[in-house]
Each structure stands twice: as structure tokens, then as C-alpha cells.
């Protein structure tokens, strides 16, 4: 049987070039490398996708990641941080591309992290949020159902659900049984995705888990989210690069943890005997004011009141006032506990932003202070011709004076060395399986294309050499999701 692949879906060119090995020869339905678990991650270019890709690679997985758009500038970052990753072109709004990604990767585990994840943006682009964050879940589940010939029990599925679903909270702390009352188009879309995940588990026997994750942050957080917006501004203010910071509601409270800890919980959910839903949180809540205390305190500023302004533009049409999760079930069943506390997290982010901003400033300083090339003195003007016909031959020009040697470039100010990031200790052995048991070959896998080597595309967009490719995403991108970068404009609300 000929491998089936939807037209237009290919492994990205740079990813294909970087594959550690060619796809092993397999007959339809037969995988030769059953001992190497495979994971497909949507949203691999985001904050969590990068941490999860690193985690799974370290655990010996073959990692496949879905990337969207043409010449996505984040591809290079993923390839650098997740060596050996195989990137597949696809989009959560495009079902055929998702079916193709499943067929090519033949995953044991699928982590659906892709979404429009910025709550503030979800009012401005509510339809896109619904399509991506909500309907995107349906499409990934359908891709798994279609590629699996209705047998959904063989691939384990993780859905990135959110504490935003609790919204106007009905009880505190929030747990798995707390009713939902979402307060934003994003929250509504996530609630749709959550219930679909539960429904596919109940309808098709899917091994589908929903992680109700509370806010988790890191130096890789997009600059539009309040933690990173604050830590970046604090770094810039302390370096004299920015005067003040403008925010919205300072009274809301969130349960903030470290993203590196939270991806471990996602993985643990898929190693259980049975699929289930889990709240993942620290159990501690802080206000934006406390976040400001911690961030400014890290650079020795005790009173930040004169440095922080408020602007109605950054307030939301409907706010989620207080979130705090009860992670008891995750602790008891998954053996998961958060490692990095609030103060340590904020210190980690401020320090990373300080290093980044100092480096960017030094680079700018170098460019700005490089001496201009010496201006050549004007050539002597020949004397006006005497009345009468112009001379047939121009008079000889005097030789220009030798160019002065440019002065040596000034040495840039020394960069402050970033303090070492705290390394979270490794988690204890989870109570259940660590290595995936080999699963019986799916009947669907027998009929589907087992990782065919993608044919060369007619006009391959190179992710490495495209001259049009920007070197960094715009500063106000809805979700930077990249390692800290020196963007300069104000983040969006
Ligand atoms: P990010 O915003 O950093 O990453 C979002 C990812 O989704 C990016 O890789 C982005 O790709 C991708 N994406 C967006 N639109 C599409 C699309 N149409 N097709 C395919 N991919 C798309 O989010 P996080 O890493 O912080 O969060 C991961 C997931 O967890 C999200 O679903 C988020 O809603 C959810 N979540 C996050 C929490 C948190 O505190 N971080 C808490 C609870 C839930 P690109 O880079 O190309 O834009
Ligand atoms: P959140 O995170 O909406 O909880 O969603 P965000 O950091 O955007 O906002 C947290 C709180 O801070 C208040 N706030 C501001 N927020 C931003 N972004 N910018 C500001 O200037 C500002 N001023 C005050 C907000 O009003 C809010 O109360 C995050 C995302 O990662 C979601 O994808 C995820 O599902 C939830 O966390 C759990």
C-alpha cells in the first residue's frame, strides 16, 4: 500500500537535514523501533513546548514537533534546544495537516500544547482563539481517531487545559471537581477543549488526560504575560534603559509556578494506568503587587510606587480575580510536587532578563559608538576656466591627502555575568511506568504510512537561510515563547 500523506504536509527542510538517522525500513503497521517511545508535541515553539521537548529528549523519546507558518523564526530555537527533534509543518486550524503529522510521527504520546494562549488577545481575536484553542483540540482528537481507525486507546493524549476555566471561582482552592465559569473567550475555548477530551475518553476509550494547569512561568515566557512584562521592565529600569512600567489590574492574584516543573506533571499523567484529569499548581497565591515587590526587590528597589503606572488599556473586560489550586491529587497519584517557589522563580526571571538586556545594550552601544569612517576631504575645485574654449585636457588633480587611521573602537562596558539559574532537582521515580510498554500494533498503523521519507518539495522554504526571515519575533507577538530576547517595545495587555 502506498503511504498516504496529505498534499503539502512535509517534514520541514532543516529538520529533515538534521535527522539523526533516516527512517527505518518498516512494513505498513510494523514499527521496528518499538523500544524508542515517540511523542508528538503541538506548540513546541512555545514556553512549555520547549521545556517538554527537552524533558522527553532527555528521557530517550524521539520527539516530533508541529510548527506552523512559513519560515517560522522559532524553528531555529527549537532545533537548538531540542537536538534531534523532527519538525513537521502543520496548523491546529487545518485537519489534513494534523492527520499527516500523526501518520508521519506514529506517536505513542501526543501533547496538545498549541493554542492562542494570551487571555488579553482572546477578546480582540475571539474567533481565531475559538478556532485554535477550542476547535484545535477537536481537530487533534479527530486526527488521532481517523489515523487510528476509530481505535483511540493506543495513543496517549494530553490536553493543555487551564485554571482560566475556573474563572469566577465557585470555591477556593480550585480542584478537579470545581465547576467552571470561564471569563474570557480563551477560557471558554479551553473549557470546550477540556470537555471534548473527557468526551473522547468516554466515547471512544481514548487514553486522554486533561491537565488543569495554573499559571507557570520561566525566562522563556512571552513578554506579553504579566510576570515577564514585569521582570523585563525591572531589568531595563535597573540598567537605566527604561523609566517606568505601565500595567493594568494590580489586585488580581495568581498561583504561579515554574514551567520546567509543570511539564514533568504532563508527562507523568501519560505514564499512568488509566487516563484522568489533574490540577497542577503550587497551592500558593500572590497578587501582582507581591510580584512587583519580588521583582523590584531583586534589583534592590524597595519602593516601586513611583515607577509603576496604571492604564485602563491593560484592564480586561472581565477579570479572574483570584486563582489558587489544590494539587493534592497530582501529588498523591502522580508523585508530583513543584520544586521552584515564587521568590526563586521571580529571581530567576529577573536575573535572566538582566543578563539579556545588558547584553543587548552592550551590543547597541558598540554599534552606536563605532567611529564613523573618516570623511574624505573634498577634492580641490579646479580654477574656473578662462574665457574662451574649455581646455581639451582637464588640469591634473592634486592627490588627496592620505586617510587618517581610524581610532581604535572603544571597549564595551563589561557585561554583568548572569547568576547561575537554579537547577530544579530531579523528580522522584513516578509510581507507575517509566518506559512505555510496547503496544500491540494498531490496525490503523498497519494501513497507514509508517513514517515515509518525505519527498523533496518543489520550492522548499529553508528555515535556515531565508533572507526574509526575521531574526527574532516582533516584541509584541502574542506569544514569544522563546528564550529571553531583547525586544524593546512595550508588551501588550
Ligand atoms: P505559548 O503561548 O508560549 O505557546 C503557544 C504555542 O501554540 C506556540 O508554539 C504557538 O506557535 C502555538 N500555536 C498557536 N497557534 C497555533 C496554530 N494555529 N497551529 C499550531 N500551533 C499554534 O504557551 P505556553 O507554552 O505557555 O502554554 C502551552 C499550552 O498550555 C497552551 O495551550 C496554553 O493555553 C496552556 N496553558 C498555559 C499555562 C501557562 O501558564 N503557561 C497555564 C495553563 C494552560 P507559534 O510559536 O508559531 O506562535
Ligand atoms: P493569565 O496571565 O491571564 O492569568 O493567563 P497574564 O500574565 O496575562 O495575566 C495575569 C494577571 O495579571 C493582570 N495584569 C496584567 N496582565 C498582563 N498580561 N499585562 C498587564 O499589563 C497586566 N496588568 C495586570 C491580568 O489582568 C491578570 O489578572 C495565563 C496564560 O498563560 C494562559 O494561557 C493560562 O491558561 C493561564 O495563565 C492559566
TrEMBL record:
What spans are recorded as compositionally biased (Low complexity)?
A: 432-444
Question: Residue ranges under compositional bias (Basic and acidic residues)?
Answer: 28-37
Give the signal sequence positions. none
The catalytic activity of this protein is classed by the Enzyme Commission as 4.2.1.47
Question: Which Pfam families does the UniProt record give?
Answer: GDP_Man_Dehyd (PF16363)
Residue segments, region Disordered: 1-37, 369-493
Task: Provide the cofactor list for this protein.
Answer: NADP(+)
- The NAD(P)-binding domain extends over 40-349
Q: Where is the composition biased (Pro residues)?
A: 371-431, 451-461
Keywords of the record = Lyase, NADP
Catalytic residues at 191
Write out the catalysed reaction: GDP-alpha-D-mannose = GDP-4-dehydro-alpha-D-rhamnose + H2O
The family line of this record is: Belongs to the NAD(P)-dependent epimerase/dehydratase family. GDP-mannose 4,6-dehydratase subfamily.
Q: What does this protein do?
A: Catalyzes the conversion of GDP-D-mannose to GDP-4-dehydro-6-deoxy-D-mannose.
Kindly provide the name given to this protein in its UniProt entry: GDP-mannose 4,6-dehydratase
Report the source organism. Answer: Frankia alni (strain DSM 45986 / CECT 9034 / ACN14a)
Specify the taxonomic lineage: Bacteria, Bacillati, Actinomycetota, Actinomycetes, Frankiales
